[in-house]
Amino acid sequence: MAERAARTRANAVINVDKYEPSAYDEPAEGPVLTRIHVEERFSGDISGAGVVEFLQAARPDGVAGFVGIERVTGQLGGRRGTFLLQDAGTVQDGIVSGDWFVIAGSGTGELAGLRGEGGFRANLGQDAEVHLDYWFELQAPAAGACLTIRTLWGTSGAELPFSPSFCPGLFWEQRHKSRRPITRRE
Predict the structure, then answer these.
(1) Closest by alpha carbon to 111, among 70, 69, 71, 75?
(2) pLDDT tens-digit readout, 119-170
(3) 127 phi and psi, to 5 degrees?
(4) In terms of residue numbers, what domain contains 169?
(5) Cβ-contact 106, 84 below 8 angstroms
(6) Domain containing residue 94: CATH number
(7) Which pTM was predicted?
(8) 47 and 75 belong to one structural domain
């Protein structure tokens, strides 16, 4: 099971560069279903570009609900890479607001292991103020590190300061029957 470190809050502003709605179901009665392609720029603690596809259900009075997946490419907390945000929100009384979270396992580059949750709010047609409370999951050591850990654990007899499950395939025999070193790579 992955552990997480303390959360850090990132604040940013989003400027929309491209907004392309395309209705795909317009019934005589009931909400209109629309697919919306958006390209935007983040500035602040999150900097870079975002591309998102939204699915929106809008009533005739202008109230709408939407969901989306966004890829952010840029920098967060001094680290570069990409990650995905899953959004859910509403449009009501000229306000766009909602929540989002980082999709587990979506971080790349220096953002591998990124997790987080936050939200956004904007007056319709204006820049959005956003926040993301984020952390990084502790990552499993590389295969070579597992080999070293197996050898050290076997020869020293000391308990490891973290779960041996971080090393996939750590031999059952070594964990439960003996402390002898196993030096072959799996």
Answers:
(1) 75
(2) 999 998 889 999 999 999 976 555 554 444 444 444 444 444 444 444 444 4
(3) -60, 150
(4) 143-176
(5) yes
(6) 2.40.350.10
(7) 0.73
(8) yes
C-alpha pair distances (Å), 169 with each of 136, 157, 158, 179: 24, 19, 20, 16
Position of tokens 């709408």?
Answer: 64
Length reported for the chain: 186
Q: Tens of pLDDT along 21-80?
A: 999 999 999 999 999 999 999 999 999 999 999 999 999 999 999 999 999 999 999 999
Q: How far apart are CA 136 and CA 26, in angstroms?
A: 43
C-alpha separations of 27 from 30, 34, 54 in Å: 6, 12, 19
Cβ-contact 42, 48 below 8 angstroms: yes
Please give the structure tokens belonging to residue 39.
């390209």
